[in-house]
Amino acid sequence: MTSAHHTHPNLVSATLSEVASMLDDGMIISDPSGLILSANNAAVRFLGEGLVGRSLGEVVSVEAVADILAGEASERNLVFSPQGNVTMEFNVRIRRMDDGLIMVLLLDMTLQRNLEKVRRDFVANVSHELRSPLTSLAGFIETILVNEVRDWPTQQRFLKIMEEEAGRMSRLIDDLLSLSRVEVDEHIIPDQKVPLLEVVKSVIATFETRAKRRQMRIRLNDRRADMASRLFMYGFADEITEVFHNLIENAIKYGFEDTEINVDIDSGRGSNVTVSVTNVGEVVAEKHLSRLTERFYRVDKARSRQIGGTGLGLAIVKHIVNRHRGTMAITSTSEGVTCFAVTLPVLEDE
Ligand SMILES: Nc1ncnc2c1ncn2[C@@H]1O[C@H](COP(=O)(O)OP(=O)(O)OP(=O)(O)O)[C@@H](O)[C@H]1O
Ligand SMILES: [Mg+2]
What we know:
The protein is α+β, with helices and mostly antiparallel strands. Helices cover 45% and strands 21% of the residues. The protein is extended, with a radius of gyration of 30 Å. It binds adenosine-5'-triphosphate and magnesium ion.
């Protein structure tokens, strides 16, 4: 038997409420006078329990509802934040249907609005970070141009500062490019075979001189059960290098002079390996730990600026680690022992 209708009339209301319960968007239906007849799960999540039986104008307190109820309009779209909950924001669509019932759809825009805020903050941060060295550069150029400093030693001192500021700007731009490249390529699954141990060793080698300048020593400790295995992983060699470059650079920058930096390699569960970089320095308070990987987050802005940091290093590290299906744990003890432990999946030796 085939039906002349596309749907059986009894099916309509049953299906409608079932569909409504599956929607991520809030759906409220009221009678022509605005008395709420039904509200789906999402609507209850957004606006609270006990919606049925209340008046629509009270729950969604916007003028547009009054207009619809008064019959002055049949459809309205607007933005709405529930009373006492300004952190949420909805796009609301209200429509009077043919049978007089009023349907309200609430689309949660909170996440999107927050993402927009993150983006705005990011642009503001970048502009600020670029503007300060630029202002300083312009100032020195002006001073030299108007010929206020005639003696060469002073000029040379100014030029040295200018060189540093220019360097800071170019590092910031490099970091920004690196971050956006990692983000754009995030979906590409790494397929190069990277010799993890070799990468770590070569990064340590490149930092030896810099560490010595602060009377620091970098020690590599291979604590794996099977130290003979060659430790390959699927990845992008450049990116894995960047991870340990950033972590070891931080350890040198934020560790105390005349201390030791330890790079430990441990075999973890399954085919995971953990490489941790540990240094002794100032205590990093608990509340900072989870935020260190945020872009531009620095514990001590003034000090970081002085030792030349933009606060993008760990944001880049986190992205790269995620992309390689790894994790990173950050800990800091009350003795100032700070540890960045990166766990990565490695290949079984063939
Ligand atoms: N090993 C560490 N010990 C103590 N604090 C650290 C350590 N590594 C990072 N931090 C803190 O985390 C902040 C963010 O680190 P991140 O590497 O992202 O930025 P940065 O080093 O300031 O600048 P960049 O790496 O972009 O040059 C640092 O400013 C510092 O406050
Ligand atoms: Mg850094």
